[in-house]
What we know:
Layout: H1 2-17, H2 39-42, H3 49-53, E1 83-89, H4 92-101, H5 109-121, E2 130-133, H6 138-144, H7 148-160, E3 163-164, E4 169-171, H8 184-191, E5 195-197, E6 207-215, H9 219-230, E7 235-243
Parallel strand pairs: 1-7, 2-3, 2-6, 6-7
Antiparallel strand pairs: 4-5
This protein binds zinc ion (2 copies).
One zinc ion (ZN) binds at residues 57, 59-60, 62, 72-73, 75-76.
Amino acid sequence: MFKRVSTKIRDALITVAWPQTCHLCGQMVESFADGAVCAECWTDPAITTIFFDKTVCSKCGLPLDRTSVRQSCGRCDGFSFHRARSCGLYGGALKASVLFLKSHPHLCPRLKGIISETFSINRAELSCDVVIPVPLHPVRERERGFNQSGLIAKVIASKFAIRLDLHSLSRIKHTERHRAGMDQIDRAKSVERAFTVGRPWLIEKASVLLVDDVFTTGSTVSAASETLIEAGAARVAVLTITRAFGH
Ligand SMILES: [Zn+2]
Ligand SMILES: [Zn+2]
């Protein structure tokens, strides 16, 4: 009872102190739990249920045609990770939240819940001993003030009591931002040899869960996975909040 009242008071105070309009529809966001998007926009099932209800590629998690008898999309064989899963498509409330996360170091409770649920549903595919976020280059991290992938990794590590490693993997190449027009080859080139492992003994023979905000072509997570495997990791699975449809 007290909890419910205090949540109401907190939400009322936040609405007064920090009036926030929904980044999708412009209505007021009434609950702190919903972050950048209003409760109504969070109910759009098109974004997340596609991953929970549909058949996906067993390796990269790409939704497959329901009538497909294949288990694989046939396009992810070259990726170095062994499994990838996402909370949902890059659109709607998830897209708005991921964009908001780039400038605000805060994951709203609603999104934390979706991340945890996605990990639980895919627990077998994503089983791991250590959670590692895709790092930013130190220059980019200084500019931004935080690494958004680190915040996502912390949610999984603390909720499921898995070791969190924020330091072993680092980014040594300051690549330009991926632009919409870049194809898979351009993106793969830009992240080639972009990562290094500073403390390989911490990941030796480990099953790693690599965490990022967005899976676009898969080049970034694949390059980071390759570096981890070369440094001694047994295997790497990937979890992202969103993914683009197709790669
Ligand atoms: Zn809205
Ligand atoms: Zn695939």
